[in-house]
Amino acid sequence: MTVTAWTAAQVARKVIDNKEFFILDVRNADAFEEWKIDGHNFDYVNIPYFELLDGVEEILPQIPTDKDVLVVCAKEGSSIMVADMLSEAGREVGYLAGGMKSWSMYLEPIKVGDLANGGELYQFVRLGKGCLSYMAISEGEAAIIDAVRFTEVFTKFAEDKDVQIKHVFDTHLHADHISGGRHIAEVTGATYYLPPKDAEEVVFDYAPLEDGLTVNIGSSAIEVGALYSPGHTIGSTSFVIDGKYLLTGDILFIDSIGRPDLAGLAEDWVGDLRETLYARYRTLAEDLIVLPAHFMIMDELNADGTVAKRLGDLFAENHGLNVEDEEAFRSMVTDNLPPQPNAYQEIRHVNMGKITPDNDEQTEMEIGPNRCAVR
Amino acid sequence: MNITQTLDAKGLACPMPIVKTKKAMDTLSTGDVLEVLATDKGALNDFKAWATAGGHTIVDQKEEAGVLYFYIQKA
């Protein structure tokens, strides 16, 4: 039987199209428990590769023959070994090329909708890490918001669309992933904006992202407007694009809200978070489509793979927007918080420009789920 | 500690450090100690989990100049 190498892009299609899939994850149990490839119709078995060195005969009954089978490990070496063994035992299986490392890096660009005068808004879904980046394009120009570090994906996409990247924003100083914003601005000549209150320690020049700032994309003026919305960090800023879309950064997600502690000041910022979610956002039009910077669970994905929902629906359905008692809210977002994202302090320092790890070190830092939310 | 045998798995990527360690262990007797040198960072968690699964004891481990040293006593 042949062993097929699956790319992360092919696996992403299985996730987005809700296909059935069987994953034999051969990493050790802790790694699997912490972080795996999530899919609505995926089945899993976790058997570490080092328990299969004497053969795979014993596990054959656990491996289905009526659906696609993918063997997954951290980088790919062990999954190839196990896939070869299964193949010799007569099974047709594949392995994930590049392993979980490549899964963590893969971005799927999906169109969210049309903007006025022929403009378009795209969401870049990083399925393996739950990060969401955005590109708004109009009349030959583009703005990017919350770009992850795989900057070539964005610059190549802009080339394919024949648009010039003019503005690059980060809604806040990220703690769970390394921003690609500064690098994209450097290679394209675009302006890189950061909220000054998050940027007190950064060691590079940036344009201040202040409340009320607006930029236009293209001559027919798709407007991108900034709305100061602190709480996840003290500088966190949202965007309203074309009067239709609300980019909430890490303040408001589809099924959860942002946590206030990743820069170390939960007690100080809980009031800001409350004010943003229960006062500032309440003044906005309920028909705005919320586009967050993360998702945490697969249920937050729409049928087309996008992560987007009407603000009015979130007011009705999102638990974090429906805690009337202030004390109960305070306790929810400051007590019993989930563990912080892997290497979050180092990641903040990278995003401040204080340290410059190489590519492998950046990959290591970003291992695991994003953990930016309180549910 | 009496080291019975040394295995140099430096520069090898997963799964080879564990594959070679297992082969070496198979030739040893109960109580013997195998010293393994590895540079694959992923080996750190894998060695622990593999030793636990097989009942072996990691009696010592250290990192020096980017090289991981494991001392594994056979069950």
From TrEMBL, chain A:
InterPro entries cross-referenced by the UniProt entry: Metallo-B-lactamas, Mito_Persulfide_Diox, POD-like_MBL-fold, Rhodanese-like_dom, Rhodanese-like_dom_sf, RibonucZ/Hydroxyglut_hydro
Top-level taxon of the source organism: Bacteria
Ranges in a coiled coil: none
GO-annotated biological processes: glutathione metabolic process; hydrogen sulfide metabolic process
Protein's recorded name: Rhodanese domain-containing protein
Chain ranges of the Rhodanese domain: 17-111
GO MF annotation terms: sulfur dioxygenase activity
Native source species: Caryophanon tenue
Classification via Gene3D superfamilies: Rhodanese-like domain, Ribonuclease Z/Hydroxyacylglutathione hydrolase-like
Automatic annotation (TrEMBL), chain B:
InterPro entries assigned to the protein according to its UniProt record, in alphabetical order: TusA-like, TusA-like_sf
One Pfam family from the record: TusA
Protein name (database record): UPF0033 domain-containing protein
Similarity comment: Belongs to the sulfur carrier protein TusA family.
Superkingdom assignment: Bacteria
SUPFAM superfamilies: SirA-like
CDD domains recorded: SirA_YedF_YeeD
Membrane-crossing segments per the record: none
Positions of the UPF0033 domain: 7-31
Organism whose genome encodes this protein: Caryophanon tenue
